[in-house]
Design brief:
Elements: H1 2-18, E1 21-28, E2 39-42, E3 48-50, E4 56-60, E5 69-73, E6 80-83, H2 84-89, E7 93-96, E8 114-118, E9 128-132, E10 141-147, E11 153-165, E12 167-180, E13 183-187, E14 194-197, E15 202-207, E16 214-215, E17 218-231, E18 237-239, E19 242-244, E20 247-254, E21 259-262, E22 270-272, E23 275-277, E24 279-284
Parallel strand pairs: 1-7
Antiparallel strand pairs: 1-4, 2-3, 2-5, 5-6, 8-24, 9-20, 10-17, 10-21, 11-15, 11-16, 11-20, 11-24, 12-13, 12-14, 12-17, 18-19, 20-23, 21-22
């Protein structure tokens, strides 16, 4: 009898633990093709993830209230929201529809005057920010404020000062958002722009001209960690008193601008004003 009771208790515990992980798949509503890098997260919390190359995801919702809101989102697509209770019990195959975009008539001269906006310098000793671990930063963001001016400008290129990375290659999604108060708000990009960094350190220059980005005003530019390939054990270093071989670190400039961070795909934004990641853009009229 005791053995039977123990089996029942163990089975109940196992079922409960399994119920904290919700699996699903996201496809494009038009072509039914799997969608990679879709964000699925519990609003205003650290609980979140992104889909893999097959469109599949696993969302950990341990200790999350059933009335919490889960959001499925992707740049250029209509987002979907559910309560966690609804999310648990509906079909776990989700379809996202393209969002209609209205293009403004802006005339740009890409080969006119050029200048730099952002943080072009960096503090050489002891100032950096970034991620550690192959999965720790998945869907998390780091960035800064950039004032593009009153008139729209053409964004030609992005420049990132890489302090050091332990991977052969790391992938990021670029975000440019409006700012409300001191917080990033609405996405201004209509298409996913995936950035690849394979350098170990130094300035990384990324051409954005093919994306025809024309924007103005004060914006929040952030990089979202997506995926990494190849850990180089020879690049292990001490971070926060612990030696690690899994990290990406950007240089920062002390007492220059600010930094935005979000540790979860739908987490609350944090803003610090003691320094900025060393990121700048080259723009033109």
């Amino acid at each position: 009898m005791k053995s039977i009771i123990l089996v029942i208790i163990f089975s109940s515990i196992t079922l409960h633990l399994r119920s904290q992980i919700i699996d699903g798949r996201v496809v494009d509503s038009t072509h039914k093709a799997p969608m990679e890098y879709v964000s699925i997260g519990v609003m205003n919390s650290r609980y979140g993830t992104i889909t893999d190359e097959t469109g599949n995801f696993s969302l950990d919702v341990n200790n999350v209230s059933p009335q919490s809101t889960v959001r499925i989102s992707m740049i250029g697509y209509e987002s979907q929201t559910y309560t966690l209770e609804e999310f648990r019990h509906i079909d776990k195959s989700f379809e996202l529809a393209l969002k209609p975009t209205r293009l403004e008539g802006v005339t740009v001269k890409p080969f006119g005057k050029e200048w730099k906006i952002g943080t072009t310098g960096y503090t050489k000793i002891g100032n950096w920010c970034g991620w550690g671990g192959s999965r720790f930063g998945k869907g998390h963001e780091i960035g800064t404020t950039m004032d593009l001016g009153d008139s729209p400008v053409y964004i030609k290129s992005l420049h990132i000062r890489l302090h050091r990375q332990a991977y052969d290659t790391s992938l990021y999604r670029l975000h440019i958002r409006t700012i409300e108060g001191e917080t990033p708000k609405d996405e201004l990009l209509s298409n996913n722009i995936i950035l690849q960094i394979s350098d170990e350190s130094g300035w990384v220059d990324i051409d954005l001209s093919e994306h025809n980005i024309v924007l103005g005003g004060k914006v929040a530019l952030t990089l979202e960690w997506l995926k990494v390939y190849g850990i180089n054990e020879n690049r292990a270093m001490k971070i926060n008193e612990k030696v690690t071989s899994e990290y990406v670190l950007f240089n920062t400039k002390r007492k220059k601008g600010n930094i935005f961070t979000r540790w979860g795909v739908e987490a609350d934004w944090k803003c610090g004003n003691r320094g900025s990641p060393s990121i700048y853009i080259t723009v033109a009229h």
